[in-house]
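REVIEWER CHECKLIST
Item 1: Sequence provided? yes
Item 2: Single chain? yes
Item 3: Sequence as submitted:
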Amino acid sequence: MDVIILKTYKTYKISIVFTLLMLAAGLSFLFICILALIDEFFFLGILILIIPGIFIYYGFYLLKKRRENTGFYWDDEGIIIDLDGNKVYWYEIEDIVYSGFPDTKATVISTHYTHHENIRIRHKKWQPTIAHIIYWYLMAQPKDYHKNLMLTWEEKKKSQFKMNSP
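Item 4: Structure as written out by the authors:
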């Protein structure tokens, strides 16, 4: 019986700053909505309470995932691309790049077109995803994550090239 031991690298946790920002935004918006409802009760005011509810829910969701030590990492098999633990394997990846739009920095993992359908089925999605985006505001130490991921990706590309060459 063969035992395969995977080398797991550092897990990058969810940013506590972003989590607390979501909770603070939701609670402050909820407070403003309650003050508006005290002054005048109307049906639209009840619907407006949905917006702070979304912020508060997402904040508690991120806090729960952080406490569960869920985060972003990679191992010898592939990269965890979301908080649900979905993985993209190294051989499925075509390229990894930095995307720096104004106010939104991200690591973009592009997969090879021949693997889109397999990834869609494995992740139980309706449509295939061409590229997987990991937003930097979601994690603590995003620059360190991207730098180390790129170093690992270069090593994996070299080892795959050596295996495929005659």
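Item 5: Key structural point noted by reviewer: The beta strands are 12-13, 71-72, 78-80, 87-89, 93-101, 104-111, 131-135.
Item 6: Recommendation: ____
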